[in-house]
Every structure is written in structure tokens, then in C-alpha cells.
Amino acid sequence: MKLSPSVHQDKNDIDSEEKEHGEEIEVDEDALPSRAAAIHEEMAKRS
Fold this sequence. Notes:
Largest sheet: none
Low-confidence stretches: none
Helix content: 25-40%
Structural class: mainly alpha
Strand content: under 5%
Oligomer: single chain
Order of helices and strands: HH
Mean pLDDT: 76
Shape: elongated
Distance between the termini: 35 Å
Number of strands: 0
Radius of gyration: 16 Å
């Protein structure tokens, strides 16, 4: 999925259907797991 050169993309941007269609992606940061919880979940998957 390629963006047109006229669209500025910084290092944290990712390609997505929403971005292609110009739709805003809303993220509820309070609902995201903590970094520690994410690490714990990843370790649990590996064991």
C-alpha cells in the first residue's frame, strides 16, 4: 500500500485503509494496556 508523495509521512505513521480514505483513527489511550501488561502477555504466549 503506497501513499502518494504529496502526503507527509513521519516515522510513526503506518499505512491503513482509514488513512487512504482520509478517515481519522481514534484511539482511547486510557483503554490501552500498560507496557508492563503487554510484556507480561507476550511472555505468557511464549511459555
